[in-house]
Design a protein that fits this description.
This protein is mainly alpha-helical. The protein has 2 domains: about 170 residues, no CATH class; about 55 residues, no CATH class. The chain is built from 8 helices and 5 strands, in the order H-H-H-H-H-H-H-E-H-E-E-E-E.
Length: about 230
């Protein structure tokens, strides 16, 4: 799902690149027009973003339910039914809203970047050729961010659905698990195996969030479910 979401978001980056390169970036008079075009593009994205993100979030929710039911096959019928009937609607709607905002932020942030670059040149001075090169790179900058969004949000959504279903079963927290490879950040490695309350997300590297919910985090929550 991360690959699919990243592919969809890179479409936005491609359009941003097309918009920027459709203007003469070496002409300062074009810069406000680029900014306006990117803002207008963001306004057209709402329905596409809602449909695209909706398909992704629905798939993650269904995969999460299937995983829970696989692990719960040896539990009582009542617990399995409780898992099936868990209301994740509010979590789904919040995640969907977040994704629509993030998708629309790609062209909006690109527009703001063009504005900031042109304003900086006016204040600090500089050659328009150098600034034009930075503006031309707006598509690549947004593509990098698109990949980060896909990686982070797929993991965050999975963790959010796990939390919702776990709390419905009376879980108060989870055991933090890392991916166990050399790329795990030191602060996340220190969390491996520690118990975390759902209502008390830890702060790591000046960012607060549960396993899988921080930027580029590949950790995941292993919920602790009451035996009774």
């Amino acid at each position: 799902m991360e690959i699919e979401y990243s592919r969809q978001l890179r479409k936005i980056s491609g359009y941003i690149d097309t918009i920027v390169k459709g203007f003469d970036v070496y002409d300062p008079r074009s810069w406000p027009l680029i900014q306006a075009s990117l803002n207008q593009y963001a306004d057209t994205l709402h329905h596409w973003a809602n449909n695209t993100a909706g398909r992704i979030m629905t798939d993650i929710a269904l995969r999460d339910e299937k995983t829970w039911l696989i692990y719960a096959k040896d539990l009582s019928y009542g617990v399995r039914e409780q898992i099936r009937n868990s209301d994740v609607g509010a979590v789904y709607q919040q995640l969907l809203s977040d994704q629509v905002r993030l998708i629309k932020s790609l062209p909006l942030d690109a527009a703001q970047r063009v504005h900031d670059l042109s304003t900086r040149m006016l204040i600090e001075g500089g050659r328009s050729k150098e600034l034009a090169g930075l503006i031309m790179a707006s598509g690549q900058v947004s593509m990098s961010r698109a990949n980060t969004i896909a990686r982070t949000e797929i993991s965050r959504a999975a963790s959010a659905f796990v939390q919702s279903r776990a709390e419905n079963l009376g879980s108060e927290g989870y055991t933090w698990r890392t991916s166990g490879d050399v790329d795990v950040r030191p602060s996340h490695k220190e969390m491996n195996g520690k118990f975390v309350y759902w209502n008390k997300p830890p702060t790591l590297d000046r960012m607060t969030g549960h396993a899988g919910c921080l930027p580029n985090c590949r950790c995941y929550p292993d919920p602790v479910i009451p035996l009774d």
